[in-house]
Amino acid sequence: MSVQEEGTFYVQGIGLRPKVYVSADGSGVVGHAGARLLADLADATGLTAAYSTALRPLRPRGTGHDPGRIATDLAVTLADGGEAIADLAVLRDQADVFGSVASTPTAWRLLADVDEWALASVRSARASAREVAWLQAAETGEGIPAARAAGRVLPGLVLDLDATLITCHSEKDAAAPTYKGGFGFHPLLCFLANTGEALSGRLRPGNAGANTATDHIEVFDQALAQIPDAHRHGTDILVRTDSAGSAKAFLAHVRDMRKRGIRTFFSVGYAITEPVRRAVRAMPKDLWHPALNQDGTLRDGAEVAELTGMVDLDGYPAGTRIIVRRERPHPGAQLSLFDQDEGLRHQVFLTDTSYSGGGSAQFLEVRHRGHACVEDRIRCGKSTGFGRFPSRDFGVNTVWLELSLTAIDLLAWTRVLLLDGELAAAEPKKLRYRLLHVAARLTRGGRRLRLRISATWPWRHELATAFHRLAALPRPAG
Q1: Is 458 exposed, middle or buried, given 0-12, 13-18 or 19+ CB atoms closer than 10 A?
Q2: Containing H/E element for 10?
Q3: Quick one: which H or E segment has residue 264?
Q4: Mean pLDDT, 10 residues at a time, over the chain (478 residues)?
Q5: What is the rounded CA–CA span in Å between residue 125 and residue 137?
Q6: 70 within 8 A of 88, measured Cβ to Cβ
Q7: Which strands sit side by side in the sheet containing 289-292, from one edge to the other?
């Protein structure tokens, strides 16, 4: 813009930034300062101490870095957005804030030394930390939040199992061609819908079957082992999967948990077979009911019907029901030949929730549709470690997956224990941008080390409040 003043023209800059001069000689400045919140939370829940106990046999002659601390630092790095073991440098090169952090070769050696026995101990350590975190949530707030469907609270806990494909761009042990024409791994994972915690996971070759009952049983059992005793017994536990989890052996295993005092129920997808197609076509129009949205309102263009008694479910647990939803396909929906013939998209699932237990077909359908949230959990998990495996060795990558699950847990516990409002439901990307990656100034005075967040940072109050709540958390005895 030009401005005329006494015959002279001046050009005013629009939106020009202040000129800066860059040098690499700063001191007392800390990057990723918010990641200290995750490291301290690992200590407060007893995770670091539990890892130290589990991995103590791997510490040579009691010297060098504590293996448990190395594992915790790796989990914090992954939660902070790191993608490789070398990213430990973010913590290691800021020793004034994060303490002594192991070198990259030392971390590599630890991952290589973890065998099946040590990995089982690591999983047990994570379970003990989870129990502490849940107790802290109960003492400082309302406890573990409830999952919801159709505007109603779902009783107990909801476990979502699903598999995903991880592409490998180089030869790695057990990597194999996938059913989608790629190459890599096909891990099976279990998330807790209530909090977003990653309860368990199994790393598998890319050609592993999607509906393998033994894999589902293993991941499910490991997930149950992660749930504290007080919640595992006497609490309803709903297991949701897509059609890959509809194997009779897996559903029988879920039902058998009731004999052990664990109140498990299932809601799993089911393939649209020819008997199902015949039943759908034979269903009278007046037995189709409007479907519901997640807020309990009617879902436009969608209907639900119960096919129980019209499809042979021999071999499935007693009381298994079969329910179908049909709706106008949205743009981009994948349609089968049956869907194209009918002009509607159909989805079928099985459940053993009885009608007397509040299980109307409409409610059960919207409850099952909530399983779709597992796709978001997996997407976030891929940016929290298991989207990229660092080693050619399958054993190392298996440990990496476990640490990735730990990183997801740390973020989930942060949301439940330390955050409010929008940030309490934020995905990892938002937490990193707003809280974890903030820069701060380190000062000393009055025998204290202070981490000073910029007074102009938009989320300074939320981060400071989180640190204050962390300091006030009750600690486990000993």
Answers
A1: exposed
A2: strand 8-11
A3: strand 264-270
A4: 54 72 87 96 97 93 87 98 96 94 96 97 98 96 92 95 95 93 96 98 94 96 97 94 96 96 96 93 94 92 94 96 90 72 86 85 96 97 96 97 98 97 96 96 88 94 97 85
A5: 19
A6: no
A7: 198-202, 188-192, 157-163, 237-241, 264-270, 345-351, 321-327, 298-306, 289-292
What is d(CA 449, CA 417) in angstroms, rounded to the nearest whole number? Answer: 24
Residue with tokens 């052996």: 249
CA 264 to chain centre: 21
The structure's pTM equals 0.93
Give residue 303's identity as a one-letter amino acid code. E
Q: Are 294 and 149 in contact (CB under 8 A)?
A: yes
* 8 A C-beta contact, residue 161 and residue 250: no
H or E, element range at 292: strand 289-292
The C-alpha atoms of residue 272 and residue 349 are separated, in whole angstroms, by 9
The residue written with tokens 């059609």 in the block is: 243
- Alpha-carbon distance of 65 to 396, in angstroms, equals 19
Amino acid at residue number 399:
V
Query: By the 8 A CB rule, do 299 and 327 touch?
Result: yes
Identify the CA nearest to 72 among candidates 95, 93, 57, 55: 55
Concatenating the DSSP letter of every residue in 34-90 gives: THHHHHHHHHHTTHHHHHHHHHGGGSGGG-SS-HHHHHHHHHHHHHTT--SGGGGHH
Give the burial class of 302: count Cβ atoms within 10 A of its Cβ; 0-12 exposed, 13-18 middle, 19 or more buried.
buried
CA-CA distance, 113 to 368, in Å (whole number)? 41
Cα–Cα distance, 136 to 386 (Å, whole number): 28
Report how far residue 251's alpha carbon sits from residue 248's, in angstroms, rounded to the nearest whole number.
5
